[in-house]
Design brief:
mainly alpha; elongated
């Protein structure tokens, strides 16, 4: 095998490990992500899995970054072509609902970052720091859209972006719980009603 093919195969194998890690961690948490479980699920040796990351912490960090990329693909990318502001924010919010309702093949345990936040919010270290960094990046992205919507007059001029982000995050934490813990069939509908109160009626 040529070095180029070998490197490409290594990347594909690493991606398979990360994808399986995302699914497992969404259910069992990042601490439940074990080399042995991944090796068994992927029909690999433990050494083969560990060789791609070196340590469990490195595997956890790679899984976090992979989950963030999947979240962005599912929630941000459907809105990326829209002009900045309320329309884009509305599209993001709708894709966010869809992600929580339907992305079970990737995130069988529901919102990956809700699970990771609860698991690591009282800890210290690189994994906790990465969870916080990725969560803050998402909040900043939402705040940017809120500011654009305020500047264009689609939201009231006295809108506080940080407060509205706070309320949106709370709404989607509630949606995740309604879906995961209670399997409530009207969870998405309730969320859309709450969005109409926060952002104004849909056009």
């Amino acid at each position: 095998m040529s070095p180029r093919k070998s490197a490409a195969e290594a990347r594909r194998t690493r991606q398979r490990i990360v994808q399986r890690g995302i699914a497992l961690a969404s259910v069992d948490g990042l601490e439940g992500l074990t080399i042995g479980r991944l090796a068994a699920d992927l029909s690999m040796s433990k050494a083969g899995v560990l060789g791609h990351f070196g340590t469990k912490e490195a595997l956890q960090l790679a899984t976090l970054e992979g989950a963030a990329a999947e979240f962005s693909r599912l929630v941000w990318e459907p809105a990326a072509a829209e002009p900045p502001g309320l329309l884009r924010l509305r599209t993001i919010c709708e894709a966010w609902i869809t992600y929580l309702e339907t992305a079970r093949d990737i995130f069988p345990g529901g919102c990956f970052f809700t699970t990771a936040s609860v698991e690591f919010d009282a800890r210290t270290g690189p994994v906790r720091n990465t969870v916080a960094r990725l969560s803050l990046l998402w909040r900043r992205r939402l705040a940017t859209e809120i500011r654009a919507a305020t500047a264009s007059g689609d939201l009231p001029p006295d809108t506080d972006p940080d407060q509205l982000v706070y309320e949106l995050i709370g709404l989607y934490l509630a949606l995740n719980q309604e879906i995961q813990l209670f399997a409530h069939p009207a969870a998405g509908t309730r969320t859309r009603r709450a969005l109409d109160r926060l952002l104004g009626p849909r056009a």
